[in-house]
Structure formats: C-alpha cells, structure tokens
Write a structure and sequence with these properties.
Length: 541
C-alpha cells in the first residue's frame, strides 16, 4: 500500500516536470490557493483540480494531452473558465489536471466583407470588440450578459446565447479545428480540403457534418474556429416594454412569435419577470424586509410599483434601414397594444440625450428615466453586441455587502445555479413554466427569477436563476433541493434543459441507441477516457 502511494506521488511529480517542460514553469500552478480557487464554483462541488496547466499554442496543448495520456491523468478543459452558475472551472471528475486555454488567444484571420473572424479559444468578448474598433469595422459581435472577459469559443461550446440576430452562438460557428484526445487533429466543414476557399463561409462541408459533435461534449478540444459577425445595421432601435398584469404574458409570447416568424423581429428577444428585473438593479432589500426571506410575491408587487417595472419586462432590438425599423415599430405596437402597459423605443441619439439630461427628460416625458436607464442601459448595449459586467452584480443579490469593483462570484461566496429548460415558442408553455418554476422556487424560500428568451422562431429558453449567499448553509441546502426539484419536475413535464451544470451532466443519459453511438465515437476519440470524463457523458453509470 505504502509502495503504491509512493509510486503514485512519484508519477504525479514526473508528470508535473513534463508539463513544466512543455509549457514553461510559470504556466503550471500547483499552489494550494490556486487549486482551491479552481476547485470552487458558485454551488457545492466535490471534484478537485490537482494542477493547472496553461499551454500557449496548439503544439503545446498536444504535448500536454500526450503527457496526460502517458501518466494516465484525467484532464478537464476551459477556455476562460467563467462558466458561472454551471460549474465555473470545476471538473466533473476528481483529481483532474485543468488545462486553461486562455493563452491561446490569437485572432488569426478576418474578413470585413464576408463578416467573419477566425479565433483561438482564449479570445474574449472584450478582445474581439477592441480588435473590431481598432479597424473601424462595421461589424458587431454578439455578446452574452456574462463578463466581457468571458471567451467566445467556451460559450459557444456550451451553446450559449446573446441578444442580437446572431444570438444563437453555436449557429454562428464554422470550420472548427479540433484536437482529439487520441492526438488526431481534424477540421470540420470545407477546411479538410487544403485548397478549399470557402472554409470560413460554408459550414456543412461535404459528407456528414461533424461540428455538432464537439459542442456540449467531451469528444475533442476546439483549438480554432471561425465566428460569423453581424454587419452593423443602417439603423438600430431598442424596444423595451412593461406588462403589469402577469396574466397577459402568454399572449405577449404568442404575439412576439408571429413577429419573429414573419421576420419583423429577428433578434433573441428577452422577457424577464419582476424578480429578475429587481436583481438587475439592486441587492436584496434587507432593510425594507427586516431581514426576512424570501421576498414574497406581495412584497415584490409593492417594489415593482415603486420602481416602475412590470410583472414582465421585455427587450428586443430592431435592426435594418430606417424604413424597415419604422415598419417594425408599427407592427410591434399593433401586436402588443392592449397586452402591455408601456412600449418605449430608443435609438442612439435619444439614448445619449436621456442619459445626459436625465432630469429634464423625465420632466418632459413623465417617465422616471433614472431608474429605467439603470435597468435598460446594459441591455441596450448588449443589443448592439457591447459586453458589460453590470449583470454580474446580480450574482451578489443575497450578499450583505455590495459587489466589489472586481467581481468574482466563485471567490466571493455568491450562490448561483441556473436551470434553463427549453420549450416550444407558445404562450401556454411559458405560462406552465412560469407557474411551475415560481411555485417550486418559492417553496424552497428563494426568489423565482425567471426570463424567457425567444432563441429562434420556434423555441424559447426559460432561464431560472437560483441566487443565494453561500455563507448561509440553510439557503445553500434549499438551493440544491430547489434545483433538483426543478430538474425532475420540469423534465417530467416535457421541458428538459438546453444546457446543464456539472452537477447534473447525466441528465441526457437516457441510454439506448443515442448513447451507444456516442460511446462508440468516444472509444475512437479517447480510448482511455481521460478527457473531460463525465461531461455530458453518455457512458452507462
Ligand atoms: C450574470 C451572468 C450572466 C450570464 N449571461 C449569460 C448569457 O447571456 N448567455 C450565456 O450563454 N451565458 C451566460 N452566463 C453563463 C456563463 O458565464 C457564460 O456562458 C460564459 O460565457 C461561460 O464561460 P466561458 O466563456 O469562460 O466558458 P468556459 O468556462 O471556458 O467553457 C465552458 C465549458 O465548455 C467546454 N469548453 C471550453 N472551451 C472548449 C474548447 N476549446 N473545446 C471544447 N470544449 C470547450 C469546457 O468543458 C468548459 O467547462 C452568465 C453568467 C452570469 C453569472
């Protein structure tokens, strides 16, 4: 037994030396603080990271994978590791080497005319935006509400989404370069033909299309991808609406579906309930509630009247020529009249004026512009692809101290878990989801923060956010129980999630022919099963 342990430690030491030789001493971290941080998410987790390795190139990454294979070490991978609410940097399997690709951050190629950029996995939202600005580009990125320093490829690997017409991120990827754990490098789409000129613009290639195999999977590491960018429209207006009567929400969803179907609205439209809206502008009202939790629906209704937002609050971008936007505005008004209390349209000129002259604007329009701008300004930017860290403050909702200047929910003990079911784009489904989620979350004494995203013409994603203070153990237990119940009940009702966290990666593990096929592919790509074991895994348990 003693001998076996000594051997294991010696092997581990030898592996570390090999990693250091591959990437440089400064880029292998084994100190307790770094490992503890990398093993901490926004909810309780068990698996630990045993070393963090940061390669700077695909060649170094290949060496790292080969070292892991040689020493039989499990590997987990991040692009920037900001997967907050789903597991952050924590691996699914214990004692994993964490490979951090943030140093693979080159922007490799770019076409203004055809609106694409080829990037490495470490490239962040901020970095790409700065790159485009420096070139006076007329192209926009699509940003998420996560940190400006979150990666573009990591988010797309989870099939995350943003706010513009390019909001469905995995749908904007083309021509992936993928390192398989077995050492092979493959290119998807047209790129496998060395002479093909259309690799960055034609996704399907010739023959079976493999791109989908590498999102939400553990079949390979994407080391390069082309991302399609959105040509800036001639004119842009943001639309915000407020609905005070929650019973109108399903009719609003149906009206918006028609507008998406006929092309009037083309972006990922977001509709948030009052709980999600309040968390976007302030922390829990500890003083006003005398410290009692949760914020009951009655109290919530009072706050939303005071703060002038609705039971449901929507936002969408209108993009096109001035004439197209004017026509879209007319159709939106017609479709939503009688269902919402207020629709506001803002363009850059009005937005800048309102921000500069808040008081005057408020007096003329009779609208409390200050509070409205607080809620609207980050969303306004996101509709133009400008990332912001403002939404991140919502992770501090139940904390007793304000969010620090540099926010890090893992480090700061913010409790955050998402459950994000997907449903057909029909008001009736939105009503069922809202009712079930609110009932379950309130029963566990947390606030039911919900939003609906019309991700396409046919589907909506409901993001349910559970937010608590990790320093309150009872709430941590309640959040875990609420998450489990949401997953169980909503899946049973027909609404499984579009993406999942590390604690529930077996959700899709229904066995059968689907699992058998994926197992066969994995036996080829990763015969030793060392890469991201357990991540969206379909191996029998
Ligand atoms: C306040 C707040 C708002 C948020 N808003 C949004 C939002 O609007 N939309 C949204 O989608 N998410 C959102 N998130 C969730 C999350 O923060 C983002 O999805 C974020 O982009 C994920 O982190 P990342 O980009 O660093 O990915 P990473 O953590 O680097 O990657 C995520 C996972 O993908 C896999 N992966 C990463 N890189 C590769 C690769 N190169 N090859 C193969 N697999 C890989 C890994 O398994 C990794 O665990 C939000 C979170 C918070 C707290």
């Amino acid at each position: 037994m003693q001998n076996q342990m000594t051997n294991t430690i010696e092997m581990y030491q030898a592996a570390l030396i090999a990693f250091e030789q591959a990437v440089g001493k400064d880029f292998v971290a084994t100190d307790a603080v770094a490992l503890q941080r990398a093993s901490t998410a926004t909810f309780p987790t068990i698996p630990k990271v045993c070393a963090i390795v940061k390669p700077a190139s695909r060649a170094e990454l290949q060496q790292c994978m080969s070292i892991a294979g040689q020493f039989c070490l499990p590997v987990y991978l991040i692009s920037s590791g900001k997967n907050w609410g789903y597991g952050s940097r924590v691996p699914v399997k214990d004692d994993s080497i964490l490979i951090d690709l943030s140093r693979l951050n080159r922007i490799l190629d770019f076409s203004e005319e055809l609106a694409w950029v080829t990037i490495e996995p470490g490239v962040t939202q901020r970095q790409l935006l700065d790159y485009l600005k420096a070139r006076n580009s007329k192209l926009w990125i699509d940003a998420t509400g996560s940190s400006p320093d979150a990666s573009l490829i990591g988010n797309s690997m989870e099939r995350g989404f943003g706010h513009t017409t390019y909001g469905d991120h995995a749908a904007q990827l083309c021509g992936l370069e993928v390192l398989l754990p077995n050492g092979d490098v493959i290119e998807t789409g047209m790129a496998r033909f060395a002479s093909a000129l259309a690799s960055p613009v034609y996704r399907w290639g010739l023959g079976p299309s493999l791109d989908g195999l590498f999102t939400q999977s553990n079949l390979g590491i994407v080391t390069r991808a082309t991302l399609w960018l959105m040509p800036a429209p001639e004119y842009f207006q943001a639309m915000f609406f407020r609905c005070d009567d929650a019973n109108n929400m399903p009719a609003i969803i149906d009206a918006l579906r028609s507008l998406r179907m006929d092309g009037t609205l083309r972006s990922a439209i977001h509709i948030a309930n009052d709980y999600k809206a309040i968390a976007g502008i302030r922390q829990y009202p500890w003083r006003e509630t005398g410290g009692l939790t949760p914020l009951t629906p009655d109290r919530m209704a009072k706050f939303r009247k005071e703060m002038k937002f609705g039971a449901w609050n929507g936002s969408a971008g209108l993009y096109g020529s001035r004439a197209q936007v004017a026509e879209a505005r007319r159709r939106v008004r017609k479709a939503l009249t009688g269902k919402v209390e207020k629709i506001t349209f803002l363009d850059d000129r009005v937005f800048a004026l309102a921000t500069r002259h808040k008081r005057l604007f408020g007096a003329i329009s009779g609208w409390d512009i200050s509070k409205a701008l607080d809620l609207a300004s980050p969303v306004y930017g996101l509709m133009k692809g400008i990332p912001t860290d403002r939404p991140l403050a919502a992770a501090y909702w139940r904390k007793r101290t304000p969010p620090p200047a540099t926010m890090d929910p893992d480090r700061d003990g913010c409790g955050l878990l998402w459950y994000a079911p997907v449903a057909p784009l029909e008001g009736g489904h939105a009503r069922i989801l809202a009712e079930m989620a609110s009932r379950i979350v309130l029963r566990h004494r947390l606030e039911p923060m919900l939003s609906f995203t019309l991700i396409s013409e046919r589907a909506l994603i409901c993001v349910i956010s559970l937010s608590w203070d990790r320093e309150v153990p009872e709430d941590e237990e309640r959040a875990g129980a609420a998450h489990e119940e949401l997953q169980r009940e909503l899946t049973k009702a027909g609404y499984p999630p579009y993406r999942t966290g590390i604690a529930s990666m077996e959700t899709g593990n229904t066995g059968g022919a689907y699992a058998r096929m994926l197992q066969a592919i994995r036996r080829h790509t990763d015969p030793d099963g060392l890469f991201a074991a357990g991540r969206y895994d379909y191996l029998p348990r």
